[in-house]
Automatic annotation (TrEMBL):
Coiled-coil ranges from the UniProt annotation: none
Gene3D superfamilies assigned to the protein according to its UniProt record, in alphabetical order: P-loop containing nucleotide triphosphate hydrolases
Protein name: Sugar ABC transporter ATP-binding protein
Occurrences of domain ABC transporter (ranges): 21-256
GO MF terms held by the record: ATP binding; ATP hydrolysis activity
InterPro entries in the cross-refs: AAA+_ATPase (IPR003593), ABC_carbohydrate_import_ATPase (IPR050107), ABC_transporter-like_ATP-bd (IPR003439), P-loop_NTPase (IPR027417)
The keyword Translocase belongs to this UniProt entry's keyword annotation: no
Keyword annotations: ATP-binding, Nucleotide-binding
Domain of life: Bacteria
Ranges where the record places region Disordered: 259-304
CDD domains named in the record: ABC_Carb_Monos_I
Native source organism of the sequence: Actinomadura montaniterrae
Record lineage: Bacteria, Bacillati, Actinomycetota, Actinomycetes, Streptosporangiales
PANTHER family: CARBOHYDRATE TRANSPORT ATP-BINDING PROTEIN MG119-RELATED, SUGAR ABC TRANSPORTER ATP-BINDING PROTEIN
Amino acid sequence: MSPTPTPTAPAPAAAEDGALLSLRGISKSFGAVAALTGVDLDVAAGEVVALVGDNGAGKSTLVKVLSGVHPPDAGTITFESREVAVPSPAAAQQLGIATVFQDLALCENLNVIENLFLGRELRALRLDEVAMEVRSRELLRQLSAKIPSVEAPVAALSGGQRQTVAIARSLLGDPKVIILDEPTAALGVAQTAEVLNLIERLRERGLGVIMISHNMADVKAVADRVAVLRLGRNNGVFDAEATSAEELVAAITGATDNVVSRRSRRARPSGGGPDPEDGAGADAEPAADEQVPTTAMTKGDGDE
Ligand SMILES: Nc1ncnc2c1ncn2[C@@H]1O[C@H](COP(=O)(O)OP(=O)(O)OP(=O)(O)O)[C@@H](O)[C@H]1O
């Protein structure tokens, strides 16, 4: 077991410099259930932040607050340096916050192009099918997506390819932040690799990515920072490279209580020089086997 991460300063009260999106003090209750209590979260442009936590930790609720599904009871959301409200999914979309929920919301009988443009068909005098096809091919090429044919019905695609189509569709709205709800859940090894590659492409495009995941190997493979929620509260923000899977699991399960703010030592395109905190553990090699037994991740109330 790796040593407990050294607690440093409490999570900052104000939006982190360079953050594209900052949540501060977000609370949300459902009746007597406090799903979120005073939660902070930051994501910068070109950064992947993994949001992890045990079942019922509040991850989905936080994502729903950000995507305009649930209004928060308290707290602030700052987007591109101004405080915003996200009263509806349409408002989130308008701001530039896209969410790909686990159900993906694809139409099985429609092909890839039709799914990509569902609800936002390009129209001149009539449906511009040529333009939609060209745009679809271009977008999927930019994402290095392995889709056999844009004319194939979505029903014929693998889980990884469907995830790719759902992510590509959300990019047509030109978002600045994209939230992925367990994008690799139930995928095999090759398909998971495909989706993780796609997330790298999103980072390269300068998007801020928030990824919910229960899989520590995926988190460590793709995230810059890892924000841990426990029982609806922050339990540390970790540098993904410098923190072992065991340390993350300890924070998730409550074996350690952390209010740790370690900024990523990976490149942050939005500026900011080297972080003095980044020295600690910066040369640590990831553990040889980062795959964490799912049993360690799923114990708890399991009521969801
Ligand atoms: N619509 C709702 N009505 C009542 N309680 C809710 C609602 N949504 C979430 N909760 C409760 O809020 C708490 C946080 O749930 P949430 O779904 O956000 O956790 P989670 O971290 O996403 O869990 P999981 O990994 O199992 O999806 C849980 O106790 C859950 O039962």
